[in-house]
Prior knowledge:
By secondary structure, the protein is an all-alpha fold.
Amino acid sequence: MSDSKFLRGTLIVTLGTFLVKFLGMIYVIPFYQLVKEPGGALYQYGYVPYTIFLSIATAGVPLAVSKFVSKYNELGDYHTSRRMFQSGLVLMTVTGFVSFIVLYLGAPLLAPHVLPVSGNEGNTVEDVTMVIRMVSFALLVVPIMSLIRGFFQGHQSMGPTTLSQLVEQIVRIVFLLTATYLVMEVFDGGYQTAVGWATFAAFIGALGGLAVLLWYWFQRKTHMDKLITPRTQRSQISTWSMYKELLMYAGPFVFVGIATPLYQQIDILTFNKAMSWINQGDIAEELLSIFSMYGHKLIMIPVSLATAFSLTLVPAITKLHTAGDYKGLHRQIGQTLQMTTFLTLPAVVGISVLAYPTYGMFYKSSHIGGEILMWYAPVAILFAFYSVNAAILQGINQQKYAVLSLGYGILVKLVLNIPLIMLFETQGAIIATGLGYFVSIMYTFLKIKKHTSMNFSIVRRRVGLIAIFVAIMAIVVLFTQWILSFFMIWNDGKLQCLLIVAICAVVGGAVYLSLAWMTNLITKVFGAELMEKIQRKVLRRG
């Protein structure tokens, strides 16, 4: 794949993924106003287990299928790619149905383990059971949708995935907010019922996303059928061998895909209990809601950039690795790591520096909310690097190290979470998450270096320069915020928070981009070809 084609595909998926994540953040604002912190905690009790079951049900299908299809298409064996697609649809239907049954029937067993052991006057076991069962219906549709997305991605076609994700998110959010508003404001129901219907929106949204993918399939089927001709190379691989290879690819994707949900599930199972043991059970659910639901939504916006890179990175790296183009492989890896840092680091540092007005702008002015967001935002850079590093390892057929890295990180989280929560409360859970991801990332970097023989010196120098520019940006933002404090304070209301964030973001962004432009760093990171195209378009419009 050429640099320009890779970047074009990356930018398409980046934009689409960012819009999906942005919508996923925006809807939380009215949702919060309706259900508050107890509703946010209840939503997480149901949605996190669903996400874990979803990852198991899909078995890492989107990226695994994209890798499988990319490999066999590169070999000219379009017939095997189509065989896998057809039989995979049957497999995903079965795994989705089984996962739905297990989660639906297992909800009463899981529910009692997530609530505080004392001091809880909010959610009940019956509430948690209901929410888990409502969201479980999405498992009947999403696995099938995931396989179709992977098939298109394997053909280097990112449009169907991007548009289907957007439609899925829009349909889900419209249904979620409409149902929540009707239950709470029209029918005067409780937030528990509203949250139940809010989680059921995952099923409705999935139907919308699947409809888009089916439309794309029927539009492109004729063209794809033409790729399979009597002269097309056809391997003699058996169906069992085909599944074995697919599962070899898919297995590690399962663990990588559930990394964040696993960390969240550990918090859900331990946070309330640990807080109860230090006599903080009465505020445990509120703090968990801010940390795991509302704060997490904000910091995952920058991480969406890295998620987009990993979606396009796997088939691209697989192709280069299969062709033995190690020079291109090193360039691809280096550029991706630099782009991830360039886009993600200033965003997470900016959120951390502006944590108090940012939280107040989206939800309400809250000292504890701002403090939690300030601590949690920097951890997002670790989320981003883990996604990219795991994708690189999978692309070079070193999947087992991605699994091992997650295992080491989860072990750190399990060992340290309760002691750190009891010492530092919510910040303790954040520190445990950060340490777990840091261990995973260091391990993956060592394995990438070993198995690609890549020299990271250029990457280190440019990342170091980016870090310096981000530090300068942060100082300027803090100074700007101090100047604005003579005229407005973040806890005066949403409008003041909005103005502070907007002004500081514009100033900070201008400083950061100016430094990157003057030192030519932006051209080195994104490539001269892309920057020349952007300049030509800007000059033409001007």
